[in-house]
Amino acid sequence: MADTLHLQIITPDKQLVREDVDQVQIPGKTGYLGVLPGHAPLLTELMIGEISYNQGGETQYFAVSWGFAEVLPHKVTILADTAERAEDIDVKRAQEAKTRAEEALRTAAADLDFDATLFALRRAEVRLEVAAKAGHTTAAH
User: Fold this and answer.
1) For the chain, which domains are there?
2) What CA–CA distance (Å, rounded) separates 113 from 124?
3) pLDDT mean over 60-69
4) Which end of the chain has fewer CB atoms at under 10 Å, N or C?
5) End-to-end CA distance of the chain
6) How far apart are alpha carbons 65 and 48 in whole angstroms?
7) Mean pLDDT value of segment 108-123
């Protein structure tokens, strides 16, 4: 049995990751999935959340929104609508998106798309949480 998994994270715009990793954690539709080498094959829909993976004692973080993941015993392929490395997240923009979503929910106009607004809020929150793990805060930007 191999000691690593081959991880690929791909968005419509580019391939973000193509590396051998020790483990990966992904936000599946029914909750987070931890994947180690030799994992049983599965397909899952991705939700808004955090992808993390360990490689040689270091952990990398990504904010992800929607998509699919295919898990094979020695390979994980993630096809995401959006994915951002923690260090690439624009914290100011994420904070502004969070504020807009919170304000829209607070005022609750009759034409408000409640689900879309909740998704926007969750995405902004995840982006801020992931950026914080890389040491980025609103004070740093």
Assistant:
1) 5-86 (2.60.15.10), 89-140 (1.20.5)
2) 17
3) 96
4) N
5) 45
6) 4
7) 88
Nearby residues of 138 by Cβ (< 8 Å), 6 or more positions away = 91, 92, 95
User: Based on C-alpha coordinates, what's the Rg of the chain?
Assistant: 16
Share of the chain above pLDDT 70, in %: 95
How far apart CA 78 and CA 35 sit, in angstroms, is 12
pTM: 0.86
Range from 52-56, 59-63, 132-136 carrying the lowest mean pLDDT: 132-136
How would you classify the pairing of strands 5-10 and 15-21? antiparallel
43 contact partners, CB below 8 Å, separation of at least 6: 68, 69, 70, 71
